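Trying the structure run again after the queue cleared.
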Amino acid sequence: MSEFTGKTAFITGAAHGQGRATAVALAKEGASIAAFDVAEKIEYPDYEFGTSDELKSLKAEIESFGGKCLIFSGDVRDDKAIQNAVKSTIAEFKRIDILFNNAGICAYAEVDKMTDEEWNAMIDINLKGPFNVTRRVVPYMKEAKSGVIINNSSVMGLRGGNRLSHYTASKWGLTGLTKAWAIELAPYNIRVVSIHPTGVNTPMNDGLAAMEGMTPIEIAERSAGNLQPVPWIEPEDTANMVLFLASDKARYCTGGQYLLDAGLLTV
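Done. Tokens:
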């Protein structure tokens, strides 16, 4: 029996990409899944997001091998939607043991041409979004005196990014939140860590490529510059890192930043 059997994971941005891969991986290890995704096109950036059909297919996939999955359509900027999803998860599964703050956006913009709307959307989704979700989940973790919060930052949460000032600011902010929450929540036996992927082979990467008039591999190679000879990592690589960090094997890991960067930050 897996150590995740009987546990519950709440995952944002779960319809596709890294969130979906992580949901499936945790479910295969016995965890019940609460999958939260905006599941519709939003005003910015101008590429496709997860859909309600993808959420439904995630639920069907997990249930096909005997797992349990609740799905919720909602924006991480919408506190009411978050509260309803968290309360419904507690009502059904009685607990939330793992929170994967994965929902996020990315887009390029020169600083002198960036609009207020672009800046605000990036900060509100990538930085305030994890805060919104975490503050609603933490009371249940405190009550249980146990929990793991994993924030999906980026290599840009540890370095600068060209034409990515709003994205970089949001991801550095998430790195800072990770450290602050780790200190604050350690007395409750709640661990908080951040992960920092290089480019990932997801629909977001495809969307960025289309916006830049490039192929997905070209956009990944331009953005990353990985030391290892790969243009990107796969969503399953992120899922494997989350599984490790959420497990008892990482029981003394808190406040740290964990790289999935194919060597990018080595040089």
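The chain has a mean pLDDT of 95. Worth checking whether this holds up in the mutant runs.
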